[in-house]
Amino acid sequence: QVQLVESGGGLVQAGGSLRLSCAASGNIFETNAMGWHRQAPGKERELVAAISGGGSTWYADSVQGRFTISRDDAKNTLYLQMNELKPEDTAMYYCAARTKGYRVYDYWGQGTQVTVSS
User: How far apart, in whole angstroms, are the C-alpha atoms of residue 115 and residue 51?
Assistant: First the structure.
């Protein structure tokens, strides 16, 4: 089992920045890829950024150039640096990890709320 705990959410004005953190514990060696998802009220959950065990990254078009995903394996922590935030970035943000060989994310955190005011 892997446990994921997010932190760093909050209220910020449009144009501002936040950095989310996700602390991982447990059988971390079972996982490789990690990602940040978000879900806004009335909308489906979407993947916004992902990083492989080797460090390759992927971003949704909506956040490309504004968000940066990174991982510190020595600290077992995943980050999401969010710059130039927009009101449409308002959502619950979830950290997720994927067991090696799996095609879906199978470990999830509880989420951290990000609210961007206009």
Answer: 24
Reported confidence tier of residue 49, pLDDT bands at 50, 70, 90: very high
**pLDDT band, very low/low/confident/very high, at 3 (cuts 50, 70, 90):** very high
Q: What mean pLDDT, rounded, does the chain reach?
A: 95
Pull the structure tokens for residue 46. 């979407």
What is the DSSP annotation of 56-105?
-EEE-TTTTTTEEEEEETTTTEEEEEE-S--GGG-EEEEEEEEETT-SS-
For residue 3, give every residue at least 6 positions away whose Cβ sits within 8 Å of its Cβ, in sequence order, or none. 24, 25, 26, 107
Distance CA 58, CA 35 (A): 9
Q: Which of 80, 58, 60, 83 is nearest to 70 (CA)?
A: 80
Contact by Cβ (8 Å): 112, 93: yes
CA distance 117 to 91: 12
How crowded is residue 73: how many other Cβ atoms within 10 Å of its Cβ? 11
